[in-house]
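We read letters as residues; the integers encode the fold. Take this protein.
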Amino acid sequence: MFVQIKRMVVTEGNAEKIVTRFGAKKDSPSLLEQQPGFIDKQVLVKKIRRGDEEVLIMVRWESEEAWKNWEKSPEHIAGHKANAGKPKPDYIVESGQEVYYVKG
């Protein structure tokens, strides 16, 4: 199994915008959820009292190859091209991505 984790830090009060974008359950599966090798997705919000908020989007794949196929798919690329040149929302403080192999 292979796991992709996106980490986003947003200003106070904006975590729900990320949850809505990445975690909202829809009537039909998203393009991501229809990809061969996709297992599931979880959106986690770090418990905080005040200040910047942290959101993790964890996507589990059957294999690294399945993840790579999604990354280079026309649907994924088109989604990024649609946002090319647009400034990131000002409520996003930082974002990044890591990938992991599940070993146990």
Observations:
- The longest helix spans residues 74-83.
